[in-house]
Amino acid sequence: MTSPVRLALLGCGTVGQEVVRLLHEQSADLAARIGAPLEIAGIAVRRLGRDRGDLPVDEALFTTDALGLIKRDDVDVVIEVVGGIEPARGWLVEALRAGKSVVTANKALLAEDGVALHEAAAEGGSDLYYEASVAGAIPLLRPLRESLHGDRINRVTGIVNGTTNFILSAMDATGAGFAEALDEATALGYAEADPTADVEGFDAAAKAAILASLAFHTRVGAADVHREGITEVTAADVASAQAMGCTIKLLCIAARGVDASGRETVSVRVHPAMIPRSHPLASVGDAFNAVFVEADAAGQLMFYGRGAGGAPTASAVLGDVVAVSRNRLAGVRAASESAYADLSVRPMGEALTRYHVSLDVADRPGVLASVASVFARHDVSIATVRQGSASGSPGRDGDAELVIVTHVAPDAALAATVGELRGLDIVRSVTSVLRVEGGV
Questions:
Q1: How far is it, in rounded angstroms, from Cα 116 to Cα 89?
Q2: Confidence band (pLDDT; 50, 70, 90) for 393?
Q3: SS3 helix, strand, coil % of the chain, rounded to 5?
């Protein structure tokens, strides 16, 4: 009988416990798929003796010495579901350099210092798999780095954070404000007690960096990603989007482009944006994730499913465990990091975007001409203008609301336009500024 593949599990929280359960429940099938049984050599946790319910595992396997577990000669594969930068980085570098395969769900570490992990994998001749780091159970990263390697990917647009998608979907469906929708998300368990990483876009930005790195064969880190969260999105913004036949989503967008000298670049950004309801991503509701990929030969592809949660994430982890275990038995390793293109990352100011700008203005002759002249000074073309009664100036007679949607222009020009508008006497307030994506 073939010797078992021995696993070291780092972390036994929500995801780790589901990994253990699936290993137990599907042990026969997994062994048949791999050609050898899987065995847990040890489980590293922060504290021993915690109640982990009816977890089907011997208590003697638990240890607080993660590094000691990794260094054991009988460990073949290290599974990391702890999260964070340190000490996870040190653990995984140690494992990879020692020739052990690594499966991780650690998006923050991959976005912060994936280079160190890939270099350690190359040094040790090891496999580094991380399907679970982006979009949970959705098979996404392997298609990008394997199935689509014969094609040229031009753009990746995605909803990759379930918490923010739940909040924005609730605001769209009920007319609730951000705070009210966040409270609902927290009560239902979709939002953490501290939701900062989600609602401020940090989680989505880390995933955007990973997606861009794979799609464009270029090292992209979290610091390269322009990031904006959803905390400033209001019920009025949602209503305005609805009036345009749109909805608002927190999007991660990674796209090829060229700079002023004609050199090819990539643009990577995360921000809330209006998209038309006809776009495939507009119908992605609740806490689901979806990623829309545009390639030369394959055309448009969409990957959709549950992007978070213990069981979905564990499913992706075990898919990677099967892959690396097969490789070990065959004496091969997967293709190493592909960063040959080495494209520069274009600053956000050079990214081409459209804006939806809502202004409360003095309702008197010449106001529209004055506002339009500001856009013209910055070479920003106006696509549509809608005028109504002011929404943000209660008690002030004679004010009006202008809602302006621009054509595509450099983001820096649009930002400068909005900055000048804020200084005009005739502009009472700039009540909303949102980007528009998807051809509205």
A1: 8
A2: very low
A3: 40, 25, 35
Catalytic residue among 71, 100, 207, 249: 207
8 A C-beta contact, residue 317 and residue 132: yes
Q: Which residue ranges are tagged as binding site?
A: 107, 192
Burial of 267 (0-12, 13-18, 19+ CB in 10 A): buried
Please enumerate in sequence order all residues whose Cβ is within 8 A of that of 329, keeping only pairs 6 or more positions apart, or say none.
2, 5, 34, 35, 36
Per DSSP, the three-state class of 291 is: strand
Give the dihedral sign, CA 248/253/255/260. Answer: positive
Place of tokens 């998608």: 165
Instruction: Catalogue all structural domains in the chain, each as residue range(s) with its CATH number.
Output: 5-136+310-330 (3.40.50.720), 142-306 (3.30.360.10), 349-436 (3.30.70.260)
Among 426, 318, 410, which residue's Cα sits nearest to residue 374? 426
**Residues in Cβ contact with 176 at an 8 Å cutoff, skipping those fewer than 6 apart:** 170, 184, 235
Query: Which residues are known binding-site members for L-homoserine?
Result: 192
Q: What are the pLDDT digits (tens) for 224-236?
A: 999 999 999 999 9
Q: Which long-range contacts (CB under 8 A, 24 or more apart) does 331-337 make?
A: 333/125, 333/126, 333/127, 334/127, 334/129, 335/145, 335/146, 336/118, 336/121, 336/122, 337/114, 337/118, 337/121, 337/122
pLDDT in tens, 248-300: 999 999 999 988 888 999 999 999 999 999 999 999 999 999 999 999 999 99
State which H helix or E strand residue 410 sits in: strand 409-410
Q: Is 207 known to be catalytic?
A: yes
- CA 270/CA 267 separation, integer angstroms: 10
Instruction: Give strand ranges (E) for 205-314.
Output: 226-227, 246-258, 264-276, 288-295, 299-306
* Distance separating alpha carbons of residues 53 and 18, to the nearest angstrom: 12
What one-character DSSP code corresponds to residue 296?
T
First CA to last CA across the chain, in angstroms?
Answer: 61
Residue 353 is predicted with a pLDDT of 92
Return binding residues for NADPH: 107
Amino acid at 229: G
Amino acid at 292: F
- Euclidean distance between CA atoms 164 and 232, whole angstroms: 12
Mean pLDDT over 304-311 rounds to: 88
